[in-house]
Structure to design on (480 residues):
């Protein structure tokens, strides 16, 4: 865990060195050659930037926990009512993804490609590094497509091109799947990678292969409404080599100067901007869900969520649990729990995935319970309830899987929001004053960066027209 401190201190030191050197003409420095940061540090920095953006709850950076209706706001309720314009959140999303994550990965790839290797083992290690860079890049682009739809991809990250075209979202997905499969097939677990500079998996190549296959299942099942044959091929080819029980990819924050963003927003800031939303609390109360005390703090003698989108006095409602607010709480990026629910859906769609929908559904629920340290007997009793057991829970398979997957995705707002958009469950609340762009419903996507309307007007206009309008209510290509 000291690695993050070392990396950040290195980067700070580099910036100080560069700025100071400029002031001393006596130094024999080559002013035409920039000081380069080693590739492994840029890779690690991109991982941290990705984890920060993914897990953040600062309304200036993203609103995923609000869009998923896990939380609601206490005083300033604009974002819970889907106002994404006032704070120019689209601009912020573009900046963090393209500048802080993807550009660092691009530069890390360039530097790794320049490494001179001797011998087969060194060459294999270099190739493993390139595959890891590719997988983190695929993961980040997958998030961006699921957020916006069509985005700059093939012409992105070119500093000479300030007006990149917007690529078709489905075409991007197909390329991301191909890249993930190439990494899954090509990674060599008998050789090393980034070692301790890999802040997500500690350089464990075997686990990265499982990550790649789990990511393939995730993207593949998302495509099942668009190209069922392609989805089936990818999912069936990857699931057996994906994560197993208890396995996950996470970014472990060491605390102190490099603390979990939730700790920064909820504790360190001294602010009380959020409480759990009644959407999730009421559902969990109704199911007597044993994760309630793991997710939230009780208020008096009951768990009470603020009415979604309305002002909710902090003292009158339940609060986020201590575990989530801890400064060293790890950001889960991809998990066996996710995989199990994706495979439950795959089984319902007729894919051959080594088990029935009911089995994978139960695996998903139990995996979530284990992660949240729920007693096994309580988890079993929960699954035995008529309104939870797969055979008797209300609704069709989308309602059964969608409800439990959404509950299990708690804290990971982007996944919860995406699960709702894909499967349509659970039933969400409509806030009192939803933004006009949302058309009175939960957003189906995020609007593009406002800057694009002027800096990249022609391509922005074409992209907006192609997807059906740059609105929160516009369905993505897989949202059918």
């Amino acid at each position: 865990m000291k690695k993050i401190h070392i990396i950040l201190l290195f980067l700070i030191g580099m910036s100080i060195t560069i700025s100071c050197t400029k002031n001393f003409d006596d130094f024999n420095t080559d002013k035409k050659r920039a000081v380069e940061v080693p590739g492994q540090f840029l890779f690690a920095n991109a991982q941290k930037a990705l984890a920060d953006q993914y897990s953040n709850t600062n309304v200036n950076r993203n609103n995923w926990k609000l869009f998923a209706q896990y939380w609601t706001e206490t005083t300033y309720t604009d974002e819970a009512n889907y106002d994404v314009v006032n704070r120019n959140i689209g601009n912020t999303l573009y900046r963090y993804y393209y500048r802080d994550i993807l550009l660092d990965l691009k530069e890390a790839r360039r530097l790794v490609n320049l490494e001179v290797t001797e011998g087969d083992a060194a060459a294999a290690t270099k190739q493993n590094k390139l595959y890891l860079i590719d997988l983190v890049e695929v993961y980040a682009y997958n998030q961006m497509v699921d957020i916006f739809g069509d985005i700059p991809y093939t012409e992105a990250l070119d500093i000479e091109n300030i007006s990149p075209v917007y690529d078709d979202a489905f075409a991007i997905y197909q390329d991301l799947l191909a890249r993930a499969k190439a990494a899954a097939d090509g990674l060599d677990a008998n050789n090393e990678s980034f070692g301790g500079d890999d802040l997500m998996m500690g350089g464990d190549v075997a686990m990265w292969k499982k990550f790649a296959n789990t990511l393939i299942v995730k993207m593949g099942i998302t495509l099942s409404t668009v190209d069922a044959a392609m989805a089936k091929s990818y999912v069936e080819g990857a699931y057996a080599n994906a994560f197993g029980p208890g396995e996950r990819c996470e970014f472990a924050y060491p605390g102190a100067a490099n603390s979990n963003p939730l700790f920064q927003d909820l504790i360190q800031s001294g602010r009380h901007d959020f409480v759990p939303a009644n959407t999730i609390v009421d559902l969990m109360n109704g199911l007597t869900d044993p994760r309630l005390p793991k997710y939230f703090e009780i208020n008096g003698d009951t768990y009470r969520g603020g009415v979604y989108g309305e002002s909710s006095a902090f003292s009158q409602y339940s609060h986020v649990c201590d575990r989530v607010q801890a400064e060293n709480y790890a950001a889960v990026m991809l998990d066996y729990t996710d995989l199990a629910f994706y495979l439950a859906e795959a089984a319902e769609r007729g894919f051959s995935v080594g088990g029935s929908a009911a089995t994978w559904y139960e695996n998903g629920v139990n995996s979530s319970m284990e992660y949240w340290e729920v007693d096994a007997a309580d988890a079993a009793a929960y699954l035995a309830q008529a309104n939870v057991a797969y055979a008797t829970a209300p609704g069709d398979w989308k309602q059964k899987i969608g409800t439990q997957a959404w509950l299990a995705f708690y804290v990971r707002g982007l996944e919860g929001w995406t699960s709702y958009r894909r499967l349509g469950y659970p039933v969400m609340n409509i806030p009192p004053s939803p933004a006009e762009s949302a058309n009175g419903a939960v957003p189906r996507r995020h609007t593009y960066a406002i800057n694009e309307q002027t800096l990249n007007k022609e391509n922005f206009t074409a992209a907006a027209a192609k997807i059906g309008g740059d609105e929160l209510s516009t369905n993505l290509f897989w949202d059918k």
Q: What stands out?
A: The beta strands are 71-73, 151-152, 166-167, 248-251, 274-276, 296-297, 319-320, 331-335. Residues 8-34 have pLDDT under 50 and may be disordered. The CA atoms of residues 60 and 89 lie 6 Å apart. The longest helix spans residues 120-148.
